[in-house]
Design brief:
single chain; 181 residues; alpha+beta; eight-stranded antiparallel barrel; 1 helix; globular; binds 2-acetamido-2-deoxy-beta-D-glucopyranose
Length: 181
């Protein structure tokens, strides 16, 4: 009796494994890849009432700057379709930057791209990781997403596209490549 039972049980397990594998493969091939170029309208001048990135905490007795370890910034940049600030709105880049390198070179980025345009309205992309803030191209991971971008994974590059030093107004191009279902 026992010897009859064992092969049957193996057969069931084998079929379950085959089924699980084919379901997994079918899901993997459903992955889509989306590439986006987003333009962040960024004003970082300290004391400007229109600033979109503001230091909110830092080490007591030290200046709160991008190059000072421990400085925490909160940001809410307007995102546009092209570099022109008057071009159609795509969404907002809301989150935080923390100067996380003791030498002041690396910034830890935690940003949600919150889409408000017609195509992706209500969906988000989560960008998180170290940005070598003085490199001309900074690559940061895309770790997750919501809505259309559920299960998103990928990477984003940041480039300073335009910078006006006196007003600290800059346009940052963020290219996103994500795979999602
Ligand atoms: C802030 O924005 C308003 C409205 O766009 C503008 O009139 C004003 O000049 C800006 N202030 C500064 C300091 O840039
Ligand atoms: C995005 O969704 C909100 C809330 O559902 C809605 O009020 C808004 O009109 C939508 N925007 C676009 C561009 O579709
Ligand atoms: C970002 O995308 C644009 C095209 O939209 C391209 O010209 C540019 O080279 C890209 N930047 C990087 C760092 O890949």
């Amino acid at each position: 009796m026992a010897t009859n039972f064992v092969p049957k049980r193996h057969t069931i397990l084998f079929l379950a494994l085959v089924l699980a594998t084919t379901t997994y493969l079918a899901k993997a091939t459903d992955l889509k890849e989306t590439q986006l170029s987003l333009y962040f309208q960024d004003i970082s001048a300290f004391g400007n009432p229109n600033a979109t990135v503001i230091p909110v905490a830092g080490i007591a007795g030290k200046a709160w700057t991008f190059t000072q370890f421990g400085t925490v910034y909160v940001t809410d940049d307007y995102i546009t379709e092209t570099s022109d600030p008057k071009s159609p709105e795509v969404g907002r880049a809301q989150g935080m930057y923390v100067t996380a390198g003791l030498d002041g070179l690396n910034s830890h980025v935690m940003i949600s791209v919150v889409f408000t345009n017609k195509e992706y309205n209500g969906s988000t992309i989560q960008i998180q990781g170290i940005s070598k803030q003085f490199d001309s191209v900074r690559e940061v991971a895309v770790v997750a997403g919501t809505g259309i971008f559920r299960f998103a994974r990928g990477y984003a590059t940041f480039e300073t596209y335009f910078l006006d030093i006196p007003t600290q107004y800059s346009v940052i191009r963020c290219n996103v490549t994500v795979q999602h279902y």
